[in-house]
Fold each of these.
Amino acid sequence: MILNNATNAKSFVYCSVYQSPNETTNYYNSGNGHFHESIYIIEGSAEYTTSPSVELSGDETYLPLSAGQLYDITNTKGQYVITKTSTVGASMMMFNPIPEDKQLQVQIVHGPNTVTVTSGDIRTTVVCITGPVTIKDKTLNSLQYAVVFANTSADLVQSENTICALVTDK
Amino acid sequence: MSKINIKIVEIDQATHTVVVKYASETSKKNIDEYPGVAFQVTNFNVTTPEEFIEAIRPQISLYVYHRDLAENPPAPIDISSWNGYSAEVENYVPPVDPTAPTQVTPAQANPEVTI
């Protein structure tokens, strides 16, 4: 697995990783900024299971992870998460709250799309997964983020094949 | 290539820690006579002892190299005739390290865009 990027966006960390084909990883899903609360599969596919122990019983059931899907994996907290790829690898983006008990609300928006991001009492962080996109007339390249502060709004303009995540605290 | 022997001598399931001992073919003592080194298994992406040994092999190889060097110091060399020797050689250019971190992109250097 290659960790391409990890960025602290103040209330959470987002990190992009690539897991190569036929690779198995085992990750203890815990810790402030380390607990993967949700995971988005950018490209490829994988499957995962959880185990209370680092040692597997062999009876685990693996669940699929498919491209273009966001998965809430809150239930894996404090467990070992085993992720396997087969003939294709998987590019993934993880969202890790700080502190770990904070609940994030993540919404994935695909381009082409124009949307007004409006924050209520809580700010919204726009994470550019695949860019570039434009927010409030400023360019957001891949892996950059912008904050739409509370009680403000900003227009997000996405062209074809771009992907953004809108992240707020629950 | 010489062989090294790595042996897990103690485990602590609660902390996922193992203690290993190691020795090479040229080590002076038996492997069990050397002190152990502790590793936390969760720091490695492994699930079997074979994968774990493979993961720590580079580190252990370095440890055993330096320990063997200390145990078997090289024989003294007669350098009495070296004084005054000179040579013209090619300038050394370090090889590119494929494992070196790649250059940081502007997006990584400045991840936040203020709007």
Note: Chain A touches chain B through 27 residues (CB under 8 Å).
Amino acid sequence: MSAFGIPIASTALRRRRVLPGFSLSLGFTLFYLTGIVLVPLLALVIRPFELGLGGFWAAISTPRVLASLRLSFGMALAAAVIDSFFGFIIAWVLVRYRFPGKGLLDALIDLPFALPTAVAGIALSTLYAPNGWIGSILIQYGIRVAYTPWGVLVAMTFIGLPFTVRTLQPVMSEQGADVEEAAATLGATRLQTIARVIVPMLLPAMLTGGAMAFARGAGEYGSVIFLAGNLPMISEIAPLLIVTKLEQFDYAGAAAIGVVMLAASFVMLLALNGLQAWAAKRR
Amino acid sequence: MGGEKTMSARFSNPTQDPILLRLVLSAIAIGFVALFLVLPLAVLFREAFADGLGKAFRAIIEPDALASVKVSLMAAAIAVPLNTLFGISAAWAVAKFDFPGKTFLVTLIDLPFSVSPVVSGLIYVLVFGMQGWLGPWLAGYDIHVLFALPGIVLATMFVTFPFVARELIPLMVDQGRDEEEAAISLGASGFSTFCRVTLPNIKWGLLYAVLLCNARALGEFGAVSVVSGHIRGQTNTMPLHVELLYNNYDYVGAFAVAGLLAMLALVTLTLKFILEWRYADELAASHRR
């Protein structure tokens, strides 16, 4: 049976492939992907297990490593929630309202994408330092942002904002007015329509944007280190601890933290794919 | 007159928010953007020009700063074209052919975006470092990847890896295969089909992606910081030079070079906005306004 099956399948494939360059383009793609991304990532995943499973566990379960992971992921989650909330309002204003300077506001949203993270870091640090524009006001109320864990939160909020706005914007503008009109016809007040109709419809996009902001924040390095003060156990993020361990030539220890962060990225990537499938099904 | 007013109020557009809500939401949106995005930008330029234009300019043409500009430009000049070639090739394979595992391939291409920049640098240390897989062997031939330009280029390539592919894949999938198939059936060669049919269709999307890829390549900090070795005047890129000056309390110098990078970011944003506004139909759907 299979002797008949194969030629049929291959003629079917050949008929479909009218265009040239399949093996060349796919071959180059796989070669480049393997060389630049997959092999180096494999080097990372294998490295900590030179220590054995027990050694790997010992490397990541020290209080300092755990504190840094808690800080990176905890603050990234908080930043994602803040970005989702304000990102929703900003996207709403950009899609629904008309006012002068809207184009400028829209263009500015991408600033954290375009501005190098180190540049953002020194700017934020100057702004929130006790003698800075914002820092000097906050210090009167006893709030210190620069060189504390709150600095981590501010930097991650800055870096994550475009993800939430840019994910919500196209979905909001695609969404027609008909459901809102229907809700209004059925006697819903505007606030009821927003809370019971609009927000639930935008929930998948909101979660997707939030997840992207979270993933970016958890791995963020450049903008955070200038603002955070980097005290071990208090304001030291996980990526910085990787750098510190590398400087001490503790490659396996650095790789162990790297593997934990990579595993978290994988989980986030899978969650994002799941979210997008869910959003597509609901549309 | 009065009657007309109440009529229009009663039949006001039900999909429009009340004026008070509109004002409050607009104020929150503008306030948040001003606080989190505009103020950092403003403080950046203020600090750069705090001691006058002349001093800022001198900080940029100082030899170590110029060397860092050169390293950044060289890294981008190698990484961006290679990633562009990869992106076109990946998009051609994904959009024009059917094969098993396509979705998985697209997910893998996106992977570098969700990896922490520091981890992106770390993986090359583990391959090319002296305790790494290839490091000692390459050192035998006097080839140094780490703490040299090749390492910087590799780290830059990794972090900017998905840019072109993820813009072109949805764009070319949308455009389908009909035009290329027509060209081939009329006897055009594969290469001339690509140059005369595909390329004109994707040129603005391609430019858009290269623009963003280039901005990230010049601005990358975390990944490059891990592999560069921070040798002043030799392996420091512009963002690394900013860090070095800042940590040495040379604030005018740090903010002058940072201002240069910020200017580049603003030019990128402006061009991006023009492309989104002018050629919206020829970009991937997610950027259309």
Note: Chain B touches chain A through 101 residues (CB under 8 Å).
